[in-house]
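Following up on my earlier message about AHM. Here are the inputs again, as you asked, copied directly from the submission form:
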Amino acid sequence: MKRKTLTQYLVEQQRSAQALAPEVRLLIEIVSRACKTISHAVSKGALGGVLGSLESENVQGEVQKKLDVISNEVLLEANEWGGHLAAMASEEMETIHLIPNRYPKGEYLLLFDPLDGSSNIDVNVSIGTIFSVLRAPQAASGRQVTEEDFLQPGSTQVVAGYAVYGPQTMLILTIGQGVVGFTLDRETGSWVLTSENMTIPADTKEFSINMSNMRHWAPPVRRYIDECLAGKDGPRGKDFNMRWIASMVADVHRLITRGGIFMYPWDSRDPKKPGKLRLMYEANPMSMLVEQAGGASTDGNQRILDIQPTALHQRVGVVMGSKNEVDLVTRYHHEVKV
Ligand code: AHM
Ligand code: MG
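Thanks, got it. Here's what our run produced:
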């Protein structure tokens, strides 16, 4: 059987459902090409001299790895000239990156975490690129885009996706019509459609959370995990398994593939930080993918995609995955409030 490539899939979407604007198709093609370049750099490792850290820190005060910066550059350069974007934003840049005046401007905004799971780069564990596409507000036409123009709830995203650099390099994508997965064929250089209609089962026996933070969790999270740990003998009446890769991309890829619940909840370590993960380029795109695959995503209290952002690098608590489990954790949060 001849399999479809990403280009064929996108052309079909553009033709059949008129679901895809030509600029968005171009955007996805360009981002996916950049992910190929990043995948290539990642796979070279020490041979490419790309491992290790730099002296610099990003806006979040995190030491930048060489591959964080390389990946950021690859995405910026790839997306500057196509005429499809008005501006970009990234985990690795303090403020937004406007399209230089020498290039035509488009009406879309691209946000990304160029290399998620940075702590796994040097130890050869799966990492990835997460991206989100918004439309620039009408009010921004004819003037320069500002940071405020990016501050739209996740429910307005036009496209969300990630590439995961693991044993295989895969691209998981939604244009708001379900979730599809492509595998990079390294011999032909094509993204090949290998997972149609990816669906997250509503129930699961697998949870994913950094247990070392247990003492800092809020009581509803503690309650949920305690009940999972009690297994067959506890109120859940079944045994649970645990996985924590410490790359959101890899942990979410697992739950999109076979179900599960992933949490990086609010914790009391730093009251100024409402969670570790960033809303605009980590939680929002992953939430759109998870919902499009039939799962759910909340911050414990409300749907992540409904949150009105107030800052580009804002953080948020994350509870996402199999619907019945996410609903249970959310209910435990609501019960505490009543
Ligand atoms: P990064 O974007 O700097 O890599 O940080 C985000 C990562 C997520 O991929 C992962 O879920 C989390 O941080 C792991 O954090 P921890 O090391 O606290 O377990
Ligand atoms: Mg990240």
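One observation from looking it over: The first strand starts at residue 53 and ends at 57. Hope that helps, and feel free to reply on this thread.
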